[in-house]
Amino acid sequence: MNGPKYMTVKQALQHQIQTGKLRPGDKLPNEEELMKQFHVSGITIRKAMTELANEGAITRIKRKGSFVNGAQAADHSSHLIAFILSAEDNYDVSYMKIIKGAQQVAAEFNYSLIVEWSNENLAIEQSSIQKMLDRKVDGFLIYPFDPIQSKDNYLFIEQNNIPYLLVDRYNVDHPSYFSGCNNYDGAILATRELIRLKHTKIKFASYHFFLHSEQERFAGYCSAMRQAGLPVTDDNLLTRVDYVALADSILKRNVTALFCCNDKLAIEMIEKLTDRGVRIPQDVSIMGFDDWDHSGNLSIGLSTVRQDFEEIGRNAANLLHQVIQGKTHGGNTKILSGVSLVIRESTCENPYA
Description:
Elements lengths: L4 H14 L12 H8 L3 H13 L3 E4 L3 E4 L11 E6 L7 H16 L3 E6 L4 H13 L4 E5 L7 H9 L4 E4 L9 E5 L1 H14 L5 E4 L6 H16 L9 E2 L4 H9 L5 E4 L2 H13 L9 E3 L16 E4 L1 H16 L9 E4 L1 E4 L11
Parallel strand pairs: 3-4, 3-5, 5-6, 6-7, 7-13, 8-9, 8-10, 10-11
Antiparallel strand pairs: 1-2, 12-14
Helix pairs in contact: 1-3, 2-3, 4-11, 7-8
């Protein structure tokens, strides 16, 4: 241990590199681990690492760590972003649009986007994350099926000091970077339109109410209803739809409009209620949310709230790039894309008003 302590650390690491214990491309232990290994301060470790970097023995990459130089070292600056999608339907066009938007921006910043599908399975999601960590990606975009259940997977990424951003869905109790749409204002637009059409008996139908995005849409619906002086009770929220009972309520004029949390549910509503003799929109107006590509091509065109999926993808990649570059800090920045109302044949003025 003669000489400066930083020199002892430097020489020990040089020896590990020269003897092959640390090979080209290997990641060195982090600062805290080296402090424990050599029983020295952080200042000593940083000085040793700086000298090794200046001499070309290692490459230090912000937020990723230090790597041994050599034939494989270039892999660590390969500019990769992983997009993990825990999707219900891999062929949903909205996912494709988000990916397209993210790819456009990723390419502008010289990143390659790697897409991994985990199919609503937390174990597969974590396996995909580990696989991408092994490829030393610069950051993650994550579209979770259930952002609350995926919390441990976020913590796993955080432990590896890699930036990540959630897309479309987030966990309100676990702050994170996020890109999505303005669910609250979109729901207000939809509900006000139904009220403008003289509907007062409006119910909100949910699909996965554990998602904060659906809760935000319900909150917007409640706000618009109360602003119009219309009562809101537990009966206004449908979380499990009994189509026989719902059709009966509609034909008895106890329900004149339905605001569905997404187009998938709205299309199902139209099909199931039509099968039970309910006329759309004469007996009940139906409003969706998303504006799927085929929402306007149905036998009854769906009135809905349009969100720009490509913009959500572009915003996600832009924000993640800012985080990777160290230009955005705090871990709780959210970007919301705008929404607009699209009126088609599934809604009309209440004929019984």
